[in-house]
Amino acid sequence: MLLCSTTSCISFGAGWFMTGYSLKPGGNKAARDTAFSWRNVRQDKTTAAWLDSLNSVGALRDTFITCKEKPKYRLHAWYVKASRPTAATIVVVHGYTNSGITMMPYARMFSHDMGYNVLVPDLRYAGLSDGNHIQMGWRDRLDVEQWIDILPTIFGDSIQVAVHGVSMGAATVMMLSGDELPSYVKALIEDCGYTSVWAEFKKELKTQFHLPPFPLMYTANTVCRMRYGWSFKKANAVEQLKKSTLPMLFIHGTADTFVPYTMLDELYAAKPNNKWRWDAPNAAHAETFWKYRKEYAQRVRKFIEEHIGSCL
Questions:
Q1: Which end of the chain, N or C, is less surrounded by CB atoms within 10 Å?
Q2: pLDDT number for residue 312
């Protein structure tokens, strides 16, 4: 009996460690250090020049909202308005241990190159948003949906919207795709998102620690439910995609091993219809934009124009 109790305590402790390691990595310092993020993103000269041009006229703005569910965290986003009142609006969602600032090269593509409105949120526990852990896209989807709800107050009532995300941001996009969204949301773009939090953590457990899923994944999942109120298994992009009716563009690099390229087939198959895909040759995780910058912009723009053509 004592042995069983000791084993259970060890297993629970290991699960507690895993949730902290995965959902509060290093205090998420890189994502919350905005000065570091600005310095890092400005290494891309085209993005730096765009940011300077925005700042010179006060065009890069930010705003806060308070999330609907308790605790009442403040959530932050950057935004840039287009010169045309009829322009489409793109919501750009960042990835794991990143923040909205890291998505500024993508925001530049949508704003400077394509002429769209852009809103770039900081997900919880990132950038200037409150929060006590990384939500891996599952409850982030609810926060992004709240941002979507207030877009007309920022950009005007006659808007049409596309949502774009990379990595965990892509998982967020797929996870919100199965929810009821406002009629002005017209298209979704996911770039290298995972099938589920369970599947991604299971893969990382094997890759990083050479451990099987039992028992650690199960105890960690229990700890996550107890501490944060959500489940690795429930956080499932595949199940949400099965309910999705909006047009979606799937992008994944064929050399991606962090979020395995093999996940793309399962994700794409789960979406019943209105789907497009780009298997980017030899691109590693979140590398497609950087490896094929011109083609990335062309493909994304064509997809958006096909589904939001009336407001361009």
A1: N
A2: 42
- Over residues 276-302, the mean pLDDT reads 98
Is the separation of the CB atoms in 284 and 256 below 8 Å?
yes
Which architecture, in CATH terms, is 27-215+229-311?
A: 3-Layer(aba) Sandwich (3.40)
Amino acid 8 reads S
* Residue 298 amino acid letter: Q
Strand 61-66 with 74-80, pairing: antiparallel
List the structure tokens of 93. Answer: 């969602």
The distance in angstroms from the start CA to the end CA of the chain is 69
Q: Tokens for 5, please give them.
A: 């109790």
Residue 27's region, left for phi above 0, alpha for psi from -120 to 50, else beta, is left
> Domain limits of the chain?
27-215+229-311
Closest to 180 in 3D by CA, of 273, 243, 224 = 243
pLDDT band for 309, please (50, 70, 90 cuts).
low
Task: For residue 191, give both structure tokens.
Answer: 């770039």
* Selection from 147, 49, 136 nearest residue 95 by Cα: 136
Considering the entire predicted model, what is its pTM?
0.95
**Tokens describing residue 152:** 């007309």
